[in-house]
Design a protein that fits this description.
Helix 5 links the parallel strand 5 and strand 6. The protein starts with a strand and ends with a strand. Helix 1 packs across helix 11 and helix 9 packs across helix 12. With 346 residues, the chain is α/β, with parallel strands linked by helices. It has 2 domains: 113 residues, 3-Layer(aba) Sandwich (Rossmann fold); 188 residues, 2-Layer Sandwich (Dihydrodipicolinate Reductase, domain 2). It contains 12 helices and 14 strands. The longest helix has 20 residues.
């Protein structure tokens, strides 16, 4: 079955979606809509698709059965509800939304209208991360002891000026945690399980005149008894590859972006040597550490393929809306802890 895609929002991340859609044999980008007519037309010309004049026109087009929501983080709800109500499957860029109430409205609409709703977390589809998740599920770590995520990036002052919503708390939902580190936060929770307690600090150190944090540090306790750390920043010059550390009583794994730094277990297998050799090379992209454009489309491609197959086979996608909501819950707990200067229990 050929699937027709529509994209709402014509910013930087929409281009990643467009390139991924173009690569999928059973998918076609039908058109795009943005509240800025100039951006709509320019995007449509670049990606050879229709420029819709309104949200309603896109959602009511019979050629479209899937809609990608690529609007600012705090403005996902309204276009998502329009697409879902029109009977379209809905693919929402991270975060799902910026409050629990707004996430729940999306989830409830998807159930009511019997359409698939998925949140975008492409790092789950990285092959090295899948190898790590399989090792966890196989019990190779023994007892999980620590799970840490580090996202120490750099964004210039101009980054926040050129796209105003990035510095606006209402439109973005937050800064380094909500809009940069949330991918790693989702990944950490996927690996380690539910977080039950958070203690955090946030601040604004490297930028001026913005409403969102550019530095944060949080300590975590997981339901399984393990502890961990999340560190996030957009003020660390020159910026470093994001890093995940999963440490247990019988083994440990450390991944820097797509590169495997440590893969060691008490009970080694022949496959462990293969994995180390396969994933210990250099990172092939900039990872977004100092340039938001320096990211790979591959994760989005793999996730969109998963979503297309889920629709075709009538099964849930790997990251449905309730799953995507979990990362938002943890981000909001970090913010609540920092604001109220107390431990937040989830």
């Amino acid at each position: 079955m050929k699937h027709g895609f529509g994209i709402i929002g014509a910013g930087l991340i929409a281009e990643v979606h467009a390139r991924a859609i173009d690569t999928i044999m059973d998918a076609e980008l039908v058109g795009v809509f943005d509240h800025n007519p100039g951006k709509t037309v320019a995007f449509a010309k670049k990606y050879k698709c229709n420029a819709f004049e309104s949200l309603e026109e896109l959602c009511n087009d019979d050629r479209i059965d899937m809609v990608c929501i690529c609007t600012p983080s705090g403005k996902h709800l309204e276009p998502a509800l329009a697409a879902i109500t029109a009977g379209k499957h809905c693919i929402i860029e991270k975060p799902l939304e910026t409050t629990i109430e707004r996430c729940d409205r999306i989830i409830e609409a998807g159930i009511k209208h019997n359409v698939l709703v998925s949140g975008i977390f492409p790092m789950r589809f990285s092959k090295v991360n899948i190898e790590l998740k399989n090792a966890i599920d196989q019990g190779r770590f023994g007892k999980l002891v620590m799970g840490d995520a580090y996202v120490k990036w750099f964004r210039t002052q101009e980054y926040y000026k050129e796209v105003r919503w990035r510095s606006d708390l209402a439109a973005s939902g937050g800064g380094a945690v909500m809009n940069q580190a949330i991918h790693s936060i989702d990944l950490l929770r996927w690996f380690m399980g539910k977080v039950t307690a958070v203690s955090a600090f946030t601040g604004l150190i490297g930028h001026k005149g913005i409403e969102v944090e550019d530095v944060a540090s949080a300590t975590l306790r997981f339901e399984n008894g393990a502890v961990g750390v999340i560190e996030a920043s957009t003020a660390v010059n020159p910026g470093f590859f994001r890093r995940i550390e999963i440490l247990g009583t019988k083994g440990s794994v450390i991944i820097e972006e797509e590169r495997l730094l440590t893969w060691t277990f008490d009970n080694e297998t022949e496959e462990d040597d293969i994995i180390r050799k396969k994933y210990s090379g250099k990172n092939v992209t900039g990872g977004g550490v100092s340039d938001p454009k320096a990211i790979s489309d591959l994760g989005h491609l793999r996730q969109l393929l998963n979503i297309v197959k889920a629709v075709d086979k009538g099964r849930p996608p790997a990251v449905d809306a309730p799953e995507a909501k979990k990362a938002v819950e943890l981000v909001l707990a970090i913010y609540a802890s920092a604001k109220n200067k107390r431990i937040v229990y989830l």
